[in-house]
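User: Fold this; tokens only.

Assistant: Input:
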Amino acid sequence: MNRYDHLEIRCPRLGGEVTFRYCREENKGMPCSRAIRCWQIYFPVEEYLKERLSPEEWDRCFGQPPKDKIATIFEIVERLKKEKQATE
């Protein structure tokens, strides 16, 4: 766990409270593409992520156009179903 993981904000995509840890890992273990926009007013998130991601990982997370909202929702639902099945 890192020093920012416990911080919480309202997620504009999901419409509820999420921790930075969620945002840092929600994209198949990589940060959400919106993490910088959402967290930049709370701490130097861009600097923090650049220190931890390789250039390829950075480009994969932040160098691509954002997905539309419906596609994102379906991906999240599918991931949550798989996680639930794995714990049962």
